[in-house]
User: What shape does this take?
Amino acid sequence: MAVQFGTIAKIVTGLVEGSKLLSSGIPDKGQGTAAGKADAATALEGRVSSLERHEADQNVLVEQLAVQLKELAAAGDRLNSRAMKFFIVSGVALCLSLVSLVLTLLWR
Assistant: This one.
């Protein structure tokens, strides 16, 4: 099957026009002006300072989380101590009640 020259010319013409449209939307990096470069530098400086502020905020949050975790661990230790005291007192009370029950049954 032979392709005619007119068909090839139409396809190539369409490709050239499409590439021109695509390239017109892309700025040429080599032809940047000094003002454009200064604006880009200013924008980058703003982004860097924003990132630094964000990082500082994150550091503060991490420090707050560390303090809260430390307080939570201390509260857990206090709760464990209180529970242990409760179990000891409960055990002693159980032993005393068993002794009193046995003595009551023996003296009857």
Remarks:
- The first helix runs from residue 5 to 24.
- DSSP finds two helices and no strands in the chain.
- The chain has a mean pLDDT of 84.
- The two ends are 122 Å apart (CA to CA).
